[in-house]
Structure formats: C-alpha cells, structure tokens
Amino acid sequence: MKQLLMTALVGVALLGAGGAKAECRDADATMLALPLHEFDQTEQGWRSLAVEGCERQAAEAIRQYRDLNAATLDESADTLIWHEGQMRASAGETDEAIRLMLESREREADEFRPYTDATIAFLRRDREALIVARQQLVSLPVPEAFARAAARYAETYPELPPLSWPLNLHVVDGLIACFDQPYREAYSCAASIAGDED
Questions:
Q1: Are 23 and 132 in contact (CB under 8 A)?
Q2: d(CA 162, CA 150)
Q3: In a structure prediction context, what are the per-residue pLDDT tens digits for the chain, which is 198 residues long?
Q4: How far apart, in whole angstroms, are the C-alpha atoms of residue 11 and residue 33?
Q5: What is the rounded (10 degree) CA torsion for 103, 32, 11, 94?
Q6: 2, 6, 32, 41, 67 from 152: Cα distances, Å
C-alpha cells in the first residue's frame, strides 16, 4: 500500500512542470544527503529537478542517491527505482525505464503489479497488454488498510485530490486515451480525464 500511495505523488512532478523550459540543474551534495522521505517525497529532493525537459537530471539524481545510500536503504526505498523509471520514461529513455520498472515489479506485492504492467505495456507500445492490465487493476479487491491510508493521505496532502480505489486508474486511463503520445504527455492526459469527471 505504501508504495502506491507514494507513487501517486509522482504525478505532482510530472504534471506540475510546464510553461517555459527551465535551465536544468543537477543534484547537489545537500540534496543527496537528505533523508529518504525528504529526498523522495518533497520539493527539497529530486522533484525539484523534474521540470519539463530536465527529467534526465531528476533520474540521475535518483540513481546517485540510490548509489550513495545503498548500504542504508531498505525495501522502503524501492519506490526510488520506480520513480527513476518514470523519469527515464519521461526523458525518452524507454529501454532503461522498462528495465527499472521490471526491477521494481519484482519487489512489489501482487496488488501493485497491474499498474506497473500497464505502464510497461504502454512503453512497449502494446495496447492489448495495456488493456489487460487495466482490467486486472479494476478487478483488485479494496485492501482492508485502504480507508486508513486514504485518510492519512488526505490529511498529509490536503491540496491534492483524494485517493480512490484502485489507485492510479486515472493514470492508466490516460495512457490508453493518449496511447500515441510520449509517456510524459500520456501520463499528463490523466489530469484532463480526471478533470472531465469532476
């Protein structure tokens, strides 16, 4: 549950960048020394680098952080692999993105895999597999802990839309609706679909 709650937040980085292209920055020593939560889930970390056109720098920051902290990171850091994969996909580094996402998938619980499978299918340009993964996602039973996790999420991130089950369905629907677009645009397509439902 924790992993998908955390990956739901990557949309802020992917959707929040826009407008004029910013000058890309690299991670500095201060950023790379942050505790995991601050590095992965706040604007002090890699998300501050993830502006449009600079996704490669964000991905490199995540890779550097994982390398520098390999001895102390445990399974709670697995989302870093996923987030690096998302940034690589946004940067157009599709093969490396798929490799990272497959590595992330090996560490996931079964209920998290349909979203991962959908994303990988999109990157592989396999629409049929993407549709199958969506069907698997919507068939997932609601976990007992979801209501509590959604309440904590709403309390922690009141400015973001509330969570609904299954997590990331709107992202998968965006990948389907904008299948012919690059990952960054198709991921953002979810925002317009969600907006149309409001």
A1: no
A2: 7
A3: 444 444 454 444 554 444 445 689 999 999 999 999 999 999 999 999 999 999 999 999 999 999 999 988 887 678 999 999 999 999 999 999 999 999 999 888 888 899 999 999 999 999 999 999 999 999 999 988 899 999 999 998 899 889 999 999 999 999 999 999 999 999 989 665 554 443
A4: 24
A5: -40
A6: 11, 12, 27, 15, 31
Q: What is the pTM (predicted TM-score) of this model?
A: 0.83
Q: How much is the pLDDT for 74? A: 80
DSSP line for the chain? -HHHHHHTTHHHHHHH--SSPPPP----HHHHTS-HHHHHHSTTTGGGG--TT-HHHHHHHHHHHHHHTTTT--GGGHHHHHHHHHHHHHTT-HHHHHHHHHHHHHHS-GGGHHHHHHHHHHHTT-HHHHHHHHHHHHTPPPPTTHHHHHHHHHHH-TTSPPP-SSTTHHHHHHHHHTTTS-HHHHHHHHHHHHHHH-
CB neighbour list of residue 151: distance below 8 Å, 6 or more residues apart: none
Q: Name residues whose C-beta falls within 8 Å of residue 196's C-beta, 6 or more positions apart in sequence.
A: none
